[in-house]
Amino acid sequence: MADDNNNSEVNHGNITPLLIQDEMKNCYLDYAMSVIVGRALPDVRDGFKPVHRRVLYAMHMLNNYHNRPYLKSARIVGDVIGKYHPHGDSAVYGALVRLAQDFSMRYPIIDGQGNFGSIDGDNAAAMRYTEARMQKLTNDMLGDIDKETVDWQDNYDGSLQEPTVLPTKIPNLLINGSAGIAVGMATNIPPHNLTEVMNGLLAIIDNSAVTVHDLIKIIPGPDFPTAGAIHGTAGIQQAYHTGKGVIQVRAKADIEVKKNDREQIVITELPYQVNKAKLIEKIAELVTEKAIEGISDIRDESSREGIRVVIDIKKGEQGAVILNRLYKQTQMQVSFGIIFLSIYNGQPKVMDLKEQLLCFIEHRREIVIRRTTYELKKAKERAHILEGLKIAVENIDAIVELIKKAEGPAQAKDQLMHKFTLSAIQAQAVLDMRLQRLTGLERDKIIADYEAVMKEIARLEGILGSEDQIRGIIRAEFVEIRENYGDARRTEIIAQADEIQMEDLIKNEEVIVTITQKGYLKRMATDTYRAQKRGGKGVKGADLEDDFYTSIFTADTHDNLMIFTDKGTVFQIKVYHIPEGQRTSKGRNIVNIINVPADEKVKEIITVPKDAEGSFLVFATKHGIVKKSELSEYKNMRQNGLKAIKVVDGDEVLAVRITDGKKDVLLASSAGKSIRFHEDDCRAQGRVSQGVKGMSLDENESVIGMEIIDETSEILTVTSRGYGKRSAAEEYRKQSRGGKGILAMKLTEKTGDIMAILPVTDKDDLMIITDKGQVIRTKISGISLLGRNTQGVRLINVKPDEKVVAVEKIAESDDDGSDGEATETPVQ
């Protein structure tokens, strides 16, 4: 019964049942439209959001013009929030402050006196301390507002009226831009140069068939108050044609050379809306974290004359290279996303460049027509009165007599209207006429005024009846605005967005690259280690403590390197990205250069030849698996690498080589065996495949190296105890893939196990590194050409607890080296 009674009350009382989802939908739509139209987006006609429009109108009502004294900002803000904008004073003051900032507005609208903030992100002083008034050009944004040129609406409490749009002669939306986030949409309109925008408007007035492509020749792109440079025109073209696009804006920086030959980077212009203080802080942070090296000091030398941030470069470093890194890693280069979204006919709309200019021209057309209509109405009212006064002066004696005999003003007015056929307004004007108007000169002036007003009426009617005249008035106004406020472009537009090419800045030279077991990588000049005779002790390399070298090779600074991990992931970098080091320096860990997975370690680094088209990659694993794939399979390299080969559990990538597909593969095992077979025995497979068996291994035996050889090759074999020999390729007969191979070297406890094989010529130098950091460079020609089944000769004298960990040849050295003594005593 209780439920029935409740239902009865709901159905028959004053409570209306509503679905909550419908109510939420309606309320949210109301809120969204309020934000879109009433707060976040500018009107396409005057380029203002409601808060900015209300600030300027309040200043207009306070007569706070450019030629009047400044008023306290608090006074202006108080009028705005008290009469027109029912929001917080901080929001209103923030809007007022931005309109006065010359680093935010391309053409400031408010003339501020006091602290109005800085490009370093400093806040403006409290509004009780600052003063403001309108700029001169703001007069042309509010001119004719009292001539019924715009529509009006009630303020928030209905006590006052406020304009729905300003009758501006200046295309504020484009010259100052706008940014705002509404509900489900956002706008980001960059500022432009006033002279260029006015020229674009004039071009459309002169020829309505002008295209966006034609307009881009007149308005080449945004013009930011902080200058800078726009790199690339593709984003501008897209934005101007579609209403959306992305441009790259760079700081302006020059490289200066000091007396001590050190370079300085001097920043004088910043991208739009970049905080200078935070930019300097970010650069300092990158230097501290060693993400950018080569910077010794940063100073902010900015003053009233402009921005000047000085970055000192360390001796020997190239400023152009560091500048390029700063562009990439800091806000010295930013992406500016253009969205030409504004309110058009009460609704948000994305427009191209021509549509926006046409909207402004149409706005000006409406203003001119409404202003002319207002002036015509006033002129006709004036003419109507002058007609009455003209009748009065022509019949002055009779009218004076009539007024003298009348009992009162009302009777006099009625008799004037009846006897002289005057309207009530005319009769009242005659009664209000001063006696001095009855003099001869004044009578002539009334007649002259009447004739002048009639001419003005004819002129105004002619304007309203002629589109050509209306267009001519608009054109003349645009020319006047351009002449009064136009200035030169600040932001440079660079057609090509090409980055500084580091290859053009870095010397093309051969270097030695080393990597340690713990992943420390560095490059050094090839003359870092002078040649010695074989059998010497070598020289001290880096102090690696519990680390040791695992690879050493030569490459050109402009070469591409392919870096393979033990689990089969491949990365690619340029040699010049490897930090340069000294003979005794450790280098930088490779994880700071490429994104090596935590459970993988670098196993092989190879140099990609410049003429590698049509080449293959051949892989060998520790368990004797080989795989051949086309090099083109790896051309689309990602930042996180690619999977180069499928590696089964327990196995790992041992070696990778680039080949032309016409040579032989030579595998060597830890047991001193080797197998040679032609590449054709391995068909080319896809990138993510496992491969086929290359060599059968006994228990506890593993592959220690792979090389690509032909009949002209000489094979150098090096053991862990520093012994080695070179043998002719013919010593290694060809076999079928998958066999156990033949003996490659006679191994003893004194020689140790084979740790490397590589093809050499007698013109090469040999670089050998031990796990204690000792490095020796010796000539291949000093190593005897011996048979396959021999122990070889001593290449480096290692200590009992020391072993060879890396071997690399340096091709065609001209160094005749003379250091070190050794005897060539083959061990049979």
What is this structure's SSE topology?
Elements: H1 2-12, H2 20-40, H3 50-61, E1 71-72, H4 73-83, H5 89-100, E2 110-113, E3 131-134, H6 139-142, E4 152-154, E5 161-163, H7 172-176, E6 178-181, E7 186-189, H8 194-206, H9 212-218, E8 229-231, H10 234-242, E9 244-250, E10 252-257, E11 263-269, H11 276-288, E12 295-300, E13 309-313, H12 319-329, E14 333-339, E15 341-344, E16 347-350, H13 353-394, H14 396-405, H15 409-419, H16 424-432, H17 440-464, H18 467-485, E17 492-494, H19 502-505, E18 510-516, E19 520-525, E20 531-532, E21 539-540, E22 549-556, E23 560-565, E24 569-574, E25 588-589, E26 602-608, E27 616-621, E28 625-630, E29 642-643, E30 653-659, E31 664-669, E32 673-678, E33 692-693, E34 703-709, E35 714-719, E36 723-728, E37 742-743, E38 754-760, E39 765-770, E40 774-779, E41 793-794, E42 804-810
Parallel strand pairs: 8-17, 20-40
Antiparallel strand pairs: 1-3, 2-3, 4-5, 6-7, 8-9, 9-14, 10-11, 11-13, 12-13, 15-16, 18-19, 18-22, 19-25, 21-40, 23-24, 23-26, 24-29, 27-28, 27-30, 28-33, 31-32, 31-34, 32-37, 35-36, 35-38, 36-41, 39-40, 39-42
Helix pairs in contact: 3-4, 4-5, 8-13, 8-18, 13-16, 13-17, 13-18, 14-15, 15-16
Protein name: DNA gyrase subunit A
Subcellular location: Cytoplasm
GO biological process, one term: DNA-templated DNA replication
